[in-house]
Specification:
- This protein has 435 residues and is mainly alpha-helical.
- It has a single domain, classed as MFS general substrate transporter like domains (Growth Hormone, Chain: A, Up-down Bundle).
- It is 84% helix and 0% strand.
- Helix 2 runs antiparallel to helix 7, helix 6 crosses helix 12 and helix 10 packs across helix 13.
- The protein is globular, with a radius of gyration of 21 Å.
Amino acid sequence: MPSGNSAIARYVQSATKIQPNELKATLFSFTFVFLLMAAYFILRPVRDAMSSDWTDQELSWLWTSTFAFSTLAVVAYGAIIPRIRFERLVPSVYAFFSASFIAFYFGSSLLPDPVWVDKTFYVWLSVFSLFHVSVFWSFMSGLFNKEQAPRLFAVIATGASAGAVAGPLIPTLFADDLGTMNLLLISAVLLLLPIPIIGALQNLKKTELGNAGLEADLSEQVRLGRNPFAGFMLLLRDRYLLGIALFILLYVAMNTVFYFELRDLLRDFERATRAQIWGGIDLVINSLAIVTATFGTGRLATRFGMGTTLALIPALMIGGWLIVAASPLLAVVVGLQIARRAGNYAITRPGREMLFTLVDDETRYKAKPVIDVVVYRGGDLVTAWAYTFVSAALGIGLTGAAIIAAVIATVWALAGFYLGRTYDHSSAARLASKD
């Protein structure tokens, strides 16, 4: 039996590059993000199915509302950070969102207008969709050091993909039987389950991972004081952070084109059918992402560097959009969307989160949410209105949108390569200094 266990351990280490002392923390982190993403993806297909009932202008106004509420959420978060003990910070975020879904469940019966309920739910879930992931990766980038992150983040990201596979199964198979409001309760319960895992990971950081030196009590940080806008100030003063923000803006522009084109192509289907199609797309995407992230991303980052890692998917999108321009069909757009999002979950997102292992805890917990949430939703706002204007004024259609998207993908690839090279050079310089 011991030899069998040893053989399994050697296989796991060879396939994933996880060291024995990192295995428990990696598994806990995997489970943590699995639960978060399952909670979100239970509700995402329902939200996306609603969008086809609204005009481009209505949807653009909803994205404007999402940006406003996201900004308020980040400002409130920045104000709360100095007033709460670090070990309570991350659990409190998930407890709050869980309570909000429960409140939405009970409050929905008091709201007479179903359209207003749908739009409120759409905005709130969109705020949650970025915030909960940003806080998770902030926690991860402070848990693992700069040597561990390139090896482990891709494996941990498979937990997100696995949760995104498990989550859509519920609305895809049982949406008619359960109803939207009951799905809210399921998600609320799932968000509470990671709380004990967070405490276990904080202990492993000091023991098995040997990263006690990375620990910081954010309640004792004084350089930024209690200024709720400190994260915005950090972003504007740092070229490295501005580069990350630009990379995300270009990703968002790409995402917006996909979203609007798909919702237009699915407009003729019933809402239940649309929810099942969106859920099916999510299942395929995240199944592919699991395989890619487990066996490819870690090797890609360590062998070819972050420049190649961050530029790979944007470069693939250039050719993909040119194919869409030549064949503007639903199946082609869906196929490219699957390739883009699977590549984002498996390669681009873990690589992007590795960039934050070079920054301090103040930046990680105060500026990172500004980038992940406010900049992201600001990009949604700008690109949604730009798409609405161009579509209405010029009537460019899918072919014209694909050509524009190919140009955006080119700039996105260049930005990713530049960021990755900056990361590689900084890591090499720090290693040489340490030696």
